[in-house]
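Contributing new complexes? Match this layout with zinc ion.
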Amino acid sequence: METLAKYPPYRDLVIVYHSVSDEKLKHVQHLFPYRSSKTFIKDVDELSKAFDFIDWETFLERKTSKNKIGKPNLLLTFDDGYSDFHDVIAPILKQKGIYAINFINPKFIDNKDLMWRCKASLLISKIEENKDLLQQISSFKSLQLNPVVSDIKKNLLSIKFENQNLLDELATFLNIDFKTYLAQNKVYLTTDELLKLKQDGFGISAHGWDHPLYQELSLDGQLDNTQKALDFLENLGLNNDSFAFPFTDFGVKNDFFEKLSKANPRLQYTFGAAGLKLDSRFKNLQRIPLEVENYSAKQVIKNEIIYYNLLKLIGKHRIKLEIISLLR
Ligand SMILES: [Zn+2]
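Output block (do not edit by hand):
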């Protein structure tokens, strides 16, 4: 691990997680493999040996690390504003003196609604645990569902943002109430917790209003969804100088970046999650997703660096806009 520090292609790496929990989280268990608190602590301890965890202010300065050993910098980020950021993650990080920023979707704050992908995960969890639902599901007309769990899983996870009402219809059909789930499970951070986290030195910033896939929105739709989230944060006195794309920035055109920064002169950086890659758009940075099953954070980063160097050999380490627009 000590030698890892020699390899990062640029000094500031940004990593992203969603949740850390020792509970079974039905609303995300089919979306990503989240860390247990023990595994997360192990990740952070291992990373601390090779990297210098930095805060947002230091990140914005983009200076080389102050420490004499010359470790590369690491910015820790989380997405989606899940409540375990307050209950599990923040206490661990406070004890270790590590900063993190959480990119939230204001629509769900205070447990007001469940994000559409979480609805899909919850439905799959409920169907898996109740065989009676499997019998019922084949007569749900809006989606022709084959009553085989793996097929249903694939089907529900392929529902798009614009068709998310299908998830609500299926829930009603199966007598599953998302509101009841939200009342019994604290899925998201509350406004009070956001303010408390800010007081404790953590960053809270924007991840779009309600987590759409940006490439499926019109330019106006992309700008509205982002602005609404940035305005919510500004009104609460939280960070409105950064934005992390929900899912991916893939397929988002230059116009979006230009108009967004024009309307928000304070905006410093936008973030994707395409792994270790340089982005041809100057202020759009790619993060390394760390929730990879059976791989420690250290291993994930190591693999990303090896892959990056391979791509660099063939000149493909930079995301080129021209290529992205050709692929659309
Ligand atoms: Zn997200």
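Reviewers usually confirm one structural detail per submission. For this one: The first strand starts at residue 12 and ends at 17.
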